[in-house]
Structure formats: C-alpha cells, structure tokens
Amino acid sequence: MTTLKSATRNARLDVRLSKTHKRVIEQAATMTGQSLSDFAVASLVQAAHRAIAEATVTQLSVRDRDIFLKRIESDAKPNKALKTAARRYTKRRA
C-alpha cells in the first residue's frame, strides 16, 4: 500500500461540507499531528479500503467454513437446484 508521503499527488478531489464538519476534521487532524489534507486523504483511503473489503470479502463462521470445505472436497455432483442457480448467476453477470 502506498503511503501518503511516497505517493505522487497529481489528482484533485473537491468536497463541500458544513463548517461544523470542517471544524471537527481540523481538530482531529491537529490532534493527530497531521495537516488537514493528509488527515482527510488518509481517512478517506482507510474508509475506501474498508468499504471495498466489506463488499468483496465473505467471512464465514468456523462451522460454516468447515461445511464449505467439506463440500469442496467431496465428490458430489451439482444437483439441479445448484445448476439452475449457476445459470441464473451467469445471466445476471452478462
């Protein structure tokens, strides 16, 4: 992951916000020893990574993980319901 210090800053993001929100963000930046821009960028990037992970990563319980792995390792053939679901999924992605 690229750090703020090593990243070339060649893009711009303009944001409109309330004075209250700006004051809170400025206070947090000051308290963490960062400039307003560095704090805002770091916070946005962190939030973006979290949102991407939440949208793309599925976390299973230990029980569900064990069931999933057992099914993958089994020699069972896909049943009709699974085949139908796979076709439906494929159509939606096309």
Describe the structure.
Helix content is 64%, strand content 0%. The protein has 94 residues and is mainly alpha-helical.
List the helices and strands and how they pair.
Layout: H1 19-31, H2 36-56, H3 62-73, H4 80-93
Helix pairs in contact: 1-2
Brief sketch in words of this structure:
This protein has helices at 19-31, 36-56, 62-73, 80-93.
User: Which segments are poorly predicted (pLDDT under 50) over 5 or more consecutive residues?
Assistant: none
Order of helices and strands: HHHH
User: What is the CA-CA span between the terminal residues?
Assistant: 32 Å
Number of strands: 0
Which structural class matches the secondary elements?
Answer: mainly alpha
Helix content: 55-70%
Total helical elements: 4
> Strand fraction band?
under 5%
Largest sheet: none
Shape: elongated
Rounded Rg: 23 Å
Question: Could you report the average pLDDT, rounded to the nearest whole number?
Answer: 92
